């Protein structure tokens, strides 16, 4: 199996948009970047010529994490809403009363040593999914701070242009199915960031076979990280692991994912956490929410609104009354970076699930109206014209207190939603 990079996407990651209904000539909507990893949103229907929102950019055989490739006919978001008759996989969910935190996490009061804050200058960093939205920006962020970045890129990838240009970027041709092949080229490394995930197109997102291969390949990434001498392993989880949560999404709640993709992400975490502990790796399972910014997929909700409204087009939406959360890409990669800096304590290996999301949670309509105002009230918004899935719109309300606690105040959001949108537009116009 080939693999590529996320956006998780994912973020959604990164989850496909359930609210976009294509117009004439539109590409149909189904991370993640993943959500490597991150993000689709649930309320937008593109107008004429609009490409619908998903979280994954299709690649040959493998898609970026948390992104979904459109197929024939309009598809509902498989990442944030339960599908008809889809039940949580009993083989990958904890038993009755079992909470993710009870077996592999240190107690909440146990924090990484605040004095252990390594400088990234000269650090050797491995990233899978480095051509995706989140992965490419994370690589850039580390490179700007003096790290040497090894980008694992599947042979034949068409997305290599997304990689940052830097003398300390080392591209290693390596697929997820043979990730151990990267060892001779790298030798040793300090941290491994696994942001790639295959099989997230509509044909494979609910395939048990495909997702099982993702889990096994990702576990090989853990073993490869240990063989490289890494002290830390981070991977891109997804908000879809929570399922239909009625309330705040805290990392310690029991998960009930509603599709095979979400179940596979949850299964991987449950297997990776004890394996990392056994191998002496500090482990962070990063659940990306809706990450946006320049370079995001053109069919994401933010990209669709910014593009179509500036072109004086109408955008069809649902009522947009459910709660939502957006996070600008610069704040997202800084959060990951600060977890890296603070997350290498002495003593027993730590293991955490961490929500990667912003602090601004409010009705989706409020975000939509703010974009409309920023672009000068161009175009039009048509609320309630999208036929909602029978389950209705699902709210996302992430709790980010663990992220703030683990980064000890060194991670702070630098961008308001308005600032992030304005900078995205500036970069697109440059």
Describe this structure in words.
By secondary structure, the protein is an alpha/beta fold. It has a domain at 101-291 and 328-355: Rossmann fold, CATH 3.40.50.720. Helices cover 27% and strands 14% of the residues. It is built from 10 helices and 13 strands. The chain has helices at residues 101-104, 133-144, 183-186, 208-227, 260-279, 301-310, 329-342, 364-374, 401-406, 417-429; strands at residues 44-45, 124-128, 148-153, 169-173, 191-194, 232-238, 282-288, 290-292, 314-317, 323-328, 351-356, 361-363, 380-382. The strands form 3 sheets. It has a 7-stranded parallel β-sheet, with helices on both faces. It has a 3-stranded mixed β-sheet with strand order 1-9-13, covered by helices on one side. A 3-stranded mixed β-sheet has the order 8-10-12. Strand 2 (124-128), helix 2 (133-144) and strand 3 (148-153) form a beta-alpha-beta unit. Helix 2 (133-144) packs across helix 7 and helix 4 runs parallel beside helix 5 (260-279). The longest helix is centred in the middle third of the chain and has 20 residues, at 208-227. It is globular and about 55 Å long.
